[in-house]
């Protein structure tokens, strides 16, 4: 408590002195810049003392063979803007500072700011302009690209990290991006999102496809997931992806393939203007929350009577998907709630769409994957994209344990 009071008093004293002297808080000669300069130079002097083995002006250093040899000026970009510092030198030129390395022009925090802005969908040009506007510092587009390229190795590690042994539910979705390969074409990036036994969302990975992938492609993807430790999946929710159901049952023999209700609802809205979405959503809910197939059919007839004359394509969509939708009604209401919980998936998709929309198109598949990984990385501090799936998870876990007896540990 005393330390906090002393720090507060020191901060107040520094602010008062700065105000008396007409020193701004921010800016090239601002108070924060001077404090940053003093802290960095003090840390560098301490590193030099450790390197030489004796304090500055200490007689013990006479005849040691190496000594301080003045300083050299250097400007580094920090979170508060450019700061000019004096870096100590030694006569042997063997000093290798750690806090501000040789040839380093940015503190680590700047790289994190670049990655954060990139994850939010800003292009390299917009990030460069942001640094010029906010920090008064020039950071080239090439430098920003090199900073974001540093995450490629991290992305590879993430894509190959060990996964949980069991997932009650795995959703497989597609995000479409524009790739400029000779000509600009739409290509899908597939994302697998698992619900853990602890009720958390876990983004399992990202895979680039060309839209015509079949069972062989999906077998490779799912085998990769299995080899990373996933021994069993109870439910896999997907929608109309060629060869996927066959691959699922080849890799996880006991897995149930379920038409994704979220996809069905999302596709419904594609045929209607936004002004009708809320009302239509209220009319759809009694269908997929009905206790039996007969009750769901009655609610669907009511829905079709109301909306069919205006949007016949929506009625046809549900009629075509009905046989694949019906098994969903056999599940416990708690399991249904997990499958229909759109927030955890849509929050991911919204972040992905925002990042993609800002760029328009990508030069390569790797650039698109890097963009989506940065968006994933920003979803939580661990970079794994974890989040709570549902508040009422324990009832759902009990329902899964009973429905899929012996498989949920």
UniProtKB/TrEMBL annotation:
GO terms for biological process: DNA transposition. The keyword Cytoplasm does not apply. Keywords: DNA recombination, DNA-binding, Transposable element, Transposition. InterPro entries: Transposase_mutator (IPR001207). Residues 53-73 are annotated as: Disordered. One of its GO terms (molecular function) is transposase activity. Coiled coil: none annotated. Belongs to the transposase mutator family. NCBIfam families: transpos_IS256. This is Mutator family transposase.
């Amino acid at each position: 408590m005393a330390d906090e009071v002393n720090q507060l008093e020191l901060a107040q004293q520094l602010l008062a002195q700065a105000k008396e002297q007409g020193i701004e808080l921010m800016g090239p000669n601002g108070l924060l810049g001077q404090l940053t300069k003093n802290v960095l130079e003090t840390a560098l002097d301490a590193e030099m003392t450790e390197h030489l083995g004796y304090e500055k002006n200490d007689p013990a250093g006479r005849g040691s063979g190496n000594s301080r040899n003045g300083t050299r000026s250097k400007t580094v970009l920090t979170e508060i803007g450019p700061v000019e510092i004096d870096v100590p030198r030694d006569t042997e030129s063997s000093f290798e500072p750690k806090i501000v390395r040789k040839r380093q022009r940015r503190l680590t925090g700047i790289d994190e700011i670049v990655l954060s802005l990139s994850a939010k969908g800003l292009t390299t040009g917009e990030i460069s302009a942001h640094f010029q506007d906010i920090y008064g510092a020039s950071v080239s587009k090439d430098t920003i690209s090199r900073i974001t390229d540093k995450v490629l190795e991290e992305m590879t590690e993430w894509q190959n990290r060990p996964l949980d042994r069991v997932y009650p539910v795995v959703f497989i979705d597609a995000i479409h991006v524009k790739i400029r390969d000779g000509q600009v074409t739409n290509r899908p990036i597939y994302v697998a999102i698992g619900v853990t036994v602890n009720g958390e969302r876990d983004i399992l990975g990202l895979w680039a496809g060309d839209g015509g992938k079949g069972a062989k492609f999906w077998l490779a993807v799912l085998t990769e997931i299995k080899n990373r430790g996933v021994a069993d999946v109870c439910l896999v929710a997907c929608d109309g992806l060629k060869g996927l159901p066959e691959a699922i049952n080849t890799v996880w023999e006991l897995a149930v393939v379920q038409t994704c209700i979220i996809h069905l609802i999302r596709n419904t809205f594609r045929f209607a203007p936004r002004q009708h979405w809320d009302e239509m959503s209220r009319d759809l809910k009694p269908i997929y929350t009905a206790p039996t197939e007969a009750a769901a059919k009655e609610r669907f007839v009511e829905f079709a009577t109301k909306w069919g004359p205006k949007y016949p394509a929506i009625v046809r969509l549900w009629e075509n998907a009905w046989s694949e939708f019906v098994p969903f009604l056999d599940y416990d209401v708690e399991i249904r709630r997990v499958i229909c919980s759109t927030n955890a998936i849509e929050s991911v998709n919204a972040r992905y769409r925002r990042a993609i929309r800002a760029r328009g198109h990508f030069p390569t598949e790797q650039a698109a994957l890097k963009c989506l990984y940065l968006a994933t990385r920003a979803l939580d501090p661990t970079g794994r994209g974890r989040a709570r799936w549902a508040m009422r998870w324990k009832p759902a876990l009990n329902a899964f344990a009973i429905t899929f007896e012996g498989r949920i540990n």
